[in-house]
Amino acid sequence: MSNSAHPSTSRSQISPPALRSTQNELVVIAPNPHESCRLTSSKFLIFMSKPTTFTSVGEIRAALKNLPRPLALVPTMGALHDGHLQLLRAARQQVGPEGTVAISIFVNPIQFDRSEDLQNYPRPLDQDLERCCEEGVDLVFLPESSSLYQPDHSTIVTESLLTKSLCGATRPGHFDGVLTIVLKLFHIFQPESAIFGDKDFQQIALIRRMVRDLDLAVEIIGHPTIRESDGLAMSSRNQRLTQEQRRDAPRIRRALLAASHLQKTGEQNREIYLNAAREHLNKNALQEFKIQYLELVDQATLQPIAKVTAPTILAVACFYDSIRLIDHVSIDPTKSD
What is the pTM of this model? Predict the structure, then answer.
């Protein structure tokens, strides 16, 4: 994948065709993202200041030839929260005012390991489009699954080493789906950079490995986890929590921090870290709360470690009923406070 052939195009040179919409997919390009605009998804009607919409991957590729570079891509599944907005702002900082910021909003069916999770994943498209407009996004890609996956599609991207633990071990096929859609998006957009949140640290590690192993010409940029005021990591799934569950959920962050503080005592024993985190997680927990995994892994290899003697990640996945939340903290015994 090469980006060297992209022409140098200023935003003022783009002359968009007339507005079009279908029930299949939409790509929205705002030639001047700083103009006031409003978007609505009612029957897939999009209104923006001088918008251009496309209905196929071929049309997107044709349009991208005339868009200013560099281009930064923010792949998402929608239900945008402040964490996503920070990614969009980081993308704008990466490309500058004359570059292009693109976002994909696609609930990717092949990365879900539970049909209930796919069915219940929030899809507030009107709100998402408003937020994209407010953030000055230049291009929004809203594909239907049928436009990206043929009925008999049989090609999947699989990574065989970094997926052996954590979410890779507990969500069979999940990362195959993630890597497949990300690779497709990279081929479609050929971005100079792509921005991902560090909350999904295993996902970023896998994408970086894919980029390295497949010689893709895109820079992967991780952005620090954005948290609510009470410490809960921002997630689109948070909005599915009941009020009681939402009040309880900050225990996840508190438990990880409490265990990580053992580093200050020089503790190296893996089980002591895990037991401390588990005790804090389970103390006075709601009945519907359960831990899926709690693990210490090497920061580079993501493999479980016996002793904390090198940069390490303490990671957890847990459920409130069927709502799955993840978080992690870094522990680096090689650094002193």
Answer: 0.86
